Amino acid sequence: AAQVGVTTNVSVTGVTTSVSFHSNDTTGDGTDVGFAIKYNITADGTSNYRFAGPGVVNTTNDPTLYLQRGFTYIFNNTTGSHPFRIQFEGTTIGVGTYVSGSQTGVQVFTIPHDAPANYEYECTAHAGMKGSFIIPS
After folding, report:
1. 64: which DSSP letter?
2. Residue 71 to residues 8, 68, 115: CA-CA distances in angstroms?
3. Are strands 72-77 and 84-88 parallel, antiparallel or unpaired?
4. SS3 122
5. Tens-place pLDDT, residues 18-56
6. Least confident of 6-10, 92-96, 129-133
7. Which residues contact 117 (CB under 8 A, 6 or more apart)?
């Protein structure tokens, strides 16, 4: 039987606390990080990006991802040589608002509630490495 009032010390490793899932407190400027979903990005040579994360098999070339309004996505570019630009559909204009970080490292993208129906991602060095982010209504 368990003893009441006795505390047992437990050593746990490899556990990430909720503190590491946000970068700031509520600021009201749209940069707040909500529920975060992380994808690691790799490449198939200079032809395609590949993502490892929820809902996608990491052998799929340039997958279309469905991102939800108000959710935060963390894109960890591990390619080393393929800058990952999040851009407006049909342009080469990078999304500035709601995106922070480095195209060659980790970028955090919070989908605004008034987002367009689509965004794209593209390698700034290889135009063929390109895919879509669909934002359902």
Report:
1. -
2. 37, 6, 12
3. unpaired
4. strand
5. 444 444 455 666 666 667 899 999 999 999 999 999 999
6. 6-10
7. 134, 135, 137
Q: Can you spell out the DSSP letters for 29-43? A: SS----SEEEEEEEE
Tokens of 36: 């975060």
Q: Please determine, for residue 61, whether its predicted confidence score (pLDDT) is greater than 90.
A: yes
Structure tokens at 61: 């070339």
Q: Is the pLDDT of residue 15 over 80?
A: no
**Strand pairing class (106-110; 130-134):** unpaired
Token reading at 43 = 């490449």
Q: What is the mean pLDDT of the chain?
A: 86
Six token digits for residue 82: 């393929």
Partners of 47 in the beta sheet? none
Burial class for 65, CB neighbours closer than 10 Å (0-12, 13-18, 19+) = buried
